[in-house]
Amino acid sequence: MTQLHFTLEQDFFTGLFTKSREEAFGLLIQCLLNQFLQAESEEKLKVSAYERNEERTDYRNGYRERQVTTRIGRMTLVVPRHRNEPFHSSMLENYQRNETALITTMMEMVVQGVSTRKVEKITEELCGTKFSKSTVSELCKGLDEAVHAFNTRPLEGVYPFLIIDALYLKVREDYCVRSKGLMIALGINKDGRKEILGFEVCEGETEHYWGTFLRKLKARGLRGVDIVTSDDHSGLVAAVRKEMVGVGWQRCQFHFIRNILDKTPKRHQTSLCLELREMFNASTLEGAREAKKDIMKEYGELAEAAMETLDEGFEDATNIMCLPERYRVTLRTSNLLERENGELRRREKVIRVFPNVESVIRLMGAVLMDHHNDWSTLSRVFSMGEYFEERDEFLPELRKAA
After folding, report:
1. Does the first or last residue of the chain, that is N or C, have fewer Cβ atoms within 10 Å of its Cβ?
2. Which residue spans within 147-222 are E strands per DSSP?
3. Per-residue pLDDT tens for 136-176?
């Protein structure tokens, strides 16, 4: 179509002067767009209204109304219908692409931590109409399919290192607010890259829930795990020992130090903390054990309960010492996952209380999926060459700790 002729009835044209500038401009554009649709229809049919022509390709079959939202307001378009072949307008196809882009952008804003209330204000400023916070929440349900596919994807290859932890969130359920755990598994693959392996909402960190979570990971293909790093939660540890037979368990040293300091008189906490860190930074397990003896001798009477905790958990917290040095710092704590939890907390503070469990999976899952995709383009956590070369030497020692 190279040339269009638009016509305006006199009453319509003069009526525009009684409207505000925004209303008049919106009505004028609406009128022109409807005439554009009519012209497109005639071009496809190759006949104008009431015209008889042997070149006719189809017949008119009435109209349907289509509501569209634009920067100058909401408009009602009268879209022609054809009897045999559906009428497709290039203008509406462009609008659908723009509408999809807008919806995708709104979903991305929510994932990145913008509250639905703020999204409502932004869309009103950009589009001249409100997408209410409930509408934005409904639109975000479009994330469900992608998040579910990500969380149930087959796990291919081996994951020598596994870090697991749970994050507690507030969820509205049965007309009250309850605390729910979000269990997360982060793996490091054979190339030394991080991956989010899975996540699931649970009622609490019992052996039952952690065991179910680990069994699902194994059913999806999790294999080749040599060591699991986590805190000392009894339910979690019991599930690891039951479901990950023959896999070494590393007690998170950061949480372990905190457990010790919690039982230490406040006046001794700073000095003890420094000595505990020096102990864990020892280059050999024998050196760490010697440092432990010195600490227990020095603080045996000053912090008896703390020294009992140190003695009880020392071996579990130093299992990582049998690995080559370059892997110890990263794997001796759950900090890789704790940093991810911090990002999730930033989003959670915007929402405060999730309306249901599905919304937890939707938003937190979208954030985890987003970060997982980013990691695939970043540098590796470390090279795995040395690890696999020396694996047969230290693996027996690691398995003794299983």
Report:
1. N
2. 161-173, 176-188, 194-202
3. 566 567 678 888 999 999 999 999 999 999 999 998 888 89
The mean per-residue pLDDT over the stretch 372-384 comes to: 86
Q: How far is CA 127 from CA 120, 131, 324, 342, in A?
A: 10, 9, 58, 34
Read off the tokens for 371. 């970060």
Q: CB-side exposure of 278: number of CA atoms within 13 Å?
A: 12
Reported confidence tier of residue 296, pLDDT bands at 50, 70, 90: very high
Contact indicator for 365, 182 with CB cutoff of 8 Å: no
The token pair at 230 is 């986590």
User: For 88-92, 155-159, 356-360, which range has the lowest pLDDT when averaged over its residues?
Assistant: 88-92
- 354: which DSSP letter? B
Per-residue tokens: 347: 């989003």
175 close to 198: Cβ distance less than 8 angstroms: no
Hunting for tokens 């071009």 — which residue is that?
Answer: 43
Phi, psi for 226 (deg, rounded to 5): -105, -35
Q: Among residues of the chain, what percentage have pLDDT more than 90?
A: 44
Residue carrying structure tokens 């462009």: 94
